[in-house]
Design brief:
Shape: elongated
Number of helices: 21
Distance between the termini: 92 Å
Strand content: under 5%
Largest sheet: none
Structural class: mainly alpha
Number of strands: 0
Length: about 425
């Protein structure tokens, strides 16, 4: 019979045997198999089916390899098979494989460091000691710095294997990052919401406390669905988040009790259920810890409702609260929204004054999407001040940049595209 190629399992066993410098006789002795049978199992024969599960397991038992070594060789063989099945050129294939190897090196390094550090990590449940909450949040900031530049798969792998990263404070921090990214890079926001849910599932402590964390993370998954425009799935996901939150407990209100409420308000606004959105925001304002953010959301909701005067009043109410914080993102949102509502109410000079402050904040944050919005706002102000040629130029540029992909039009900012067209047709409102 003609000789054929070794099968996948034969290759794996043979590579490990070579690596450990073992003969068929030595493998057979360790596995309780005759040398002749080992030889038959590993001999290349044409038309041979792969090793049976029983034979494969017996041969592996004769090798001093760890499960990790088996996984590594299996991955190596899968990579070789992929090289034969793709339709890339040699140069393209080399680029792909170099990128894959570099990614694997980064993942291995991150996982190794995380696991080593976790050896001395004490078990942490519900924070009860004085100062523990602030300490945990400080540690979460440092953990996030180590995670933020990793690919999504690597971040998930780290939190799955390293107990150091399985903390309530890191779950909370990742939720915050997801909410922040939702207005800029919605795919990244989705990955962060998934990461938060993964952490919440692994946090130690009482089940009720973990339910609260699961509810918080799930609420941010609902928020991502809302931003994508998937309002029905978002509603169902938020309902599940609220159920988990209510089933859980947090007697010291470590987590912001108003957070799910203001996420609900954003969804109700997207559903055009404005009165429910305002009611949720009022409740969040009464019990939550971020009154500035809640008032900014309330101002935006009122703007969408066409209640521009009330929106201005609400945003002015938020101003001292937000300015007292060291949060450039909230400050940007406050001043941008206030400037927009000044234009709605004909206060173009005040909007122009705010515009320069908004521009400084946007430049410091380095966000291209924000710069496009500022271009749109500048065009709107120019139109209101009677500079029509300049306005049309600025609005056309902002619309062009949004369509070129620099501005993700799946976001709620899609409504601005319609406003561009309105401004070109009708000019500023009187």
């Amino acid at each position: 019979m003609m000789a054929g190629k070794l099968t996948h399992r034969q290759l794996l066993v043979s590579i490990l045997a070579l690596w450990y410098d073992l003969s068929f006789k030595e493998i057979g002795a360790a596995a309780g198999m005759p040398q002749k049978l080992v030889s038959q199992c590993l001999r290349p024969l044409a038309g041979r089916k792969d090793l049976s599960d029983r034979s494969y397991e017996r041969l592996l038992s004769g090798l001093p390899s760890s499960p990790a070594a088996i996984h590594i060789v299996a991955a190596f063989l899968e990579t070789l098979e992929a090289l034969e099945s793709d339709d890339l050129t040699q140069e393209e294939r080399a680029l792909v494989e170099e990128a894959v190897l570099e990614s694997l090196r980064r993942i291995r390094k991150a996982l190794t460091e995380a696991v080593k550090l976790s050896r001395a990590t004490p078990e942490r449940g519900y924070p009860t000691e004085p100062g523990e909450v602030s300490r945990c949040r400080h540690e979460a900031d440092a953990l996030w710095q180590r995670l933020k530049d990793l690919p999504e798969e690597a971040r998930l792998a780290v939190v799955q294997v390293a107990e150091e990263f399985q903390t309530w404070a890191l779950c909370e921090r990742v939720c915050q990052e997801s909410a922040s990214e939702a207005s800029r890079q919605v795919e990244r926001a989705a990955g962060l919401a998934r990461l938060a849910e993964e952490i919440a599932e692994r946090v130690p402590g009482p089940e009720g406390w973990r339910d609260r964390l699961r509810g918080l993370a799930r609420g941010h998954s609902a928020n991502v669905l809302r931003v994508f425009g998937n309002l029905k799935p978002a509603d169902a996901t938020l309902e599940e988040a609220q159920r988990l939150w209510r089933a859980g407990y947090d007697p010291d209100s470590v987590l912001d009790p108003g957070r799910l409420l203001d996420l609900e308000a954003s969804l109700r606004r997207g559903q055009r259920r404005f009165e429910e959105a305002l009611a949720a925001l009022d409740e969040a304002l009464a019990i939550g810890r971020s009154p500035g953010r809640v008032l900014i959301k309330k101002g935006f909701t009122l703007e969408v409702m066409g209640e521009y005067g009330r929106a201005v009043e609400t945003l002015l109410q938020a101003t001292p609260l937000v300015e007292s914080l060291d949060d450039p993102r909230q400050l940007y949102m406050l001043r941008f929204n206030l400037a927009v509502n000044f234009t709605h109410t004909g206060r173009y000079a005040e909007a122009a004054e705010l515009l320069e402050q908004v521009r400084v904040l946007a430049v410091s944050r380095g966000d291209e999407n924000e710069m496009i919005r500022i271009g749109w706002l500048e065009g709107r102000i120019a139109a209101g001040l009677g500079k029509h040629e300049e306005a049309l130029k600025l609005l056309d540029q902002a619309r062009s940049e949004s369509r070129s992909g620099r501005w993700d039009m799946t976001r709620p900012w899609l409504c601005w595209k319609n406003r561009f067209c309105f401004w070109k047709r009708a000019g500023p409102p009187r």
